[in-house]
Design a protein that fits this description.
elongated; 186 residues
Length: 186
């Protein structure tokens, strides 16, 4: 019975995070009660998992980072390193739509430990993809993964609009050209 309860609690938590991500992407000021209702749970269940707006935003961000970190080796196993890197960057930009509207909340809620616990795995993901690209000679060698991660962090500051999507594509093209990638392989 306890395993069923834990599984149910995990399912509720994941559902809340998924619904909240979509809700915050559409309206950063959405109420937590609205999120609970859309998730099909009571407000008490939401608050039991996430006692504040800040804790919910931080949990979404952590889940997104975990998703991106896990995505890197998956993409590398299915695509050329350069294509895997492009797809990974596009996924990062897509997940950034939620972060754009709640960046101030996330910044205020995240402790230095939170930042390190999310930054280091992201840096490792970027490092592994860059290394694969360098080994395949799809980009020039010697690229600093931290520089690339800082550049990619700018994508999360772009408004989630049609014009913003166009700007993200342009910026990614600039990044890949700067890394020495062949435009024909992008």
């Amino acid at each position: 019975m306890n395993e069923e309860l834990r599984a149910d609690a995990r399912a509720n938590r994941d559902r809340i995070l998924d619904v909240a991500r979509a809700a915050f992407s559409s309206d950063p000021n959405v109420s937590l009660n609205s999120i609970a209702k859309t998730a099909g749970i009571g407000a008490g269940t939401l608050y039991r998992h996430f006692p504040s707006r800040e804790s919910l935003v931080l949990a979404i961000y952590r889940k997104d980072v975990d998703t991106l970190v896990a995505l890197a080796p998956t993409l590398l196993s299915k695509h050329s390193p350069l294509k895997a890197f492009r797809l990974w960057c596009e996924s990062l930009a897509q997940l950034g739509k939620m972060k754009y509207g709640v960046a101030d909340i996330l910044h205020a809620a995240a402790s230095e430990q939170d930042r390190q616990e999310t930054y280091q795995p992201m840096l490792g993901a970027v490092r592994s993809i860059l290394s694969a690209c360098e080994m395949a000679k799809e980009i020039r060698s010697g690229t600093d993964p931290e520089d690339v991660l800082v550049f990619l962090g700018l994508l999360w500051r772009i408004p989630p609009t049609k014009a913003g999507e166009i700007r993200i594509k342009r910026l990614l093209t600039i990044l890949f050209r700067g890394l020495g990638a062949d435009d024909k392989k992008l």
